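Deliverable D4.2, example record:
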Amino acid sequence: MTTAVDEHQTQAEVEAAPALPDLTAHDRCDRCGAQAYVRVILFSLNDLLFCGHHYSHHEAALDEHVLRIKDQRSALDSLTPEV
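Output generated by the structure prediction step:
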């Protein structure tokens, strides 16, 4: 999990925060409605859910606004059939 720190919060406070719950099949991307694999908690404490595609597309723009990220895109690797 990636964490970021603003001027009001120390790295230790971010790391001590409770773990974000795992995303489930019921969690949907806020952009397109596909299954969400990434939860982003903003400094405003609002959260955003993204599918892998839309998180990759918006990742750079979100960097300066993110408090915490729960990234479960690695679960997509197990869904890819071996050829």
